[in-house]
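A.,

Following up on our hallway conversation. Structure tokens first:
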């Protein structure tokens, strides 16, 4: 029966929310598994159609040189990088993971696609300081406050569900130590209008929305680059 508003079950909205986000998580897994099987390297870094293995992983070192090595003051905060535990969200085939492992003490990398996880594990088999885990796209299995830095590139600008993004940012906040940095990008081009459930075009964020998300998820947004662009980079620092 349909209850009148005054007697509607108090948990109905929560149940609907959980169902919709779980459905989206399953769709992310299905779609990215298909992309991994079709041409994993291209869908991870779509500037090249047919990557050689050498060039693909070299591009990961270039990404780390640009995004990480130029920002070590914010990332390490005076500590030896070899002492840091790093979380990577959306590792794909391990393109960036291998490069991160050359710098930091330990890298825990997560991906929603089992096919991508298999590729990443093969790519990092010679890296004893790397662990690769499969996620449901909504939560992360790790101990609270166990990481010194979190990083994600080419992930959220593919996610069209704002609740899913908020949920994952909150999860990362749970896993980061107070004061630690989560550096990541979202879709910033407000002309993008993804269809509901799209797992390629991500929902756009304005600066005001990014700032609000930081506050809601337990972070402080201190820096940003690329407002209004496809790659809108955000520096979220975990609040105490």
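Then the amino acids I'd put at each of the 240 positions:
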């Amino acid at each position: 029966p349909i209850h009148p508003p005054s007697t509607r079950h108090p948990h109905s909205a929560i149940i609907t929310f959980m169902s919709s986000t779980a459905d989206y998580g399953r769709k992310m897994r299905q779609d990215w598994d298909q992309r991994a099987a079709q041409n994993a390297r291209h869908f991870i870094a779509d500037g090249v159609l047919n990557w050689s293995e050498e060039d693909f992983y070299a591009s990961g070192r270039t990404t780390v040189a640009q995004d990480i090595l130029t920002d070590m003051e914010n990332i390490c905060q005076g500590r030896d990088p070899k002492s840091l535990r790093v979380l990577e969200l959306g590792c794909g085939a391990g393109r960036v993971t291998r490069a991160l492992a050359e710098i930091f003490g330990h890298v825990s990398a997560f991906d929603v696609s089992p096919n991508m996880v298999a590729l990443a594990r093969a790519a990092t088999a010679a890296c004893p300081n790397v662990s690769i885990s499969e996620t449901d796209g909504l939560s992360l299995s790790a101990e609270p406050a166990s990481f010194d830095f979190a990083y994600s590139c080419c992930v959220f600008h593919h996610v069209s569900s704002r609740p899913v993004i908020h949920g994952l940012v909150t999860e990362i906040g749970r896993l980061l130590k107070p004061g630690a940095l989560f550096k990541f990008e979202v879709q910033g081009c407000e002309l993008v209008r993804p269809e509901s459930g799209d797992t390629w075009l991500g929902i756009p964020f304005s600066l005001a929305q990014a700032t609000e998300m930081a506050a809601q998820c337990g972070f402080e947004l201190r820096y940003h680059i690329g407002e209004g662009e496809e790659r809108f980079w955000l520096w979220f620092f975990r609040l105490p």
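Confidence is low (pLDDT under 50) at residues 1-18. Curious whether your intuition agrees with the design.

B.
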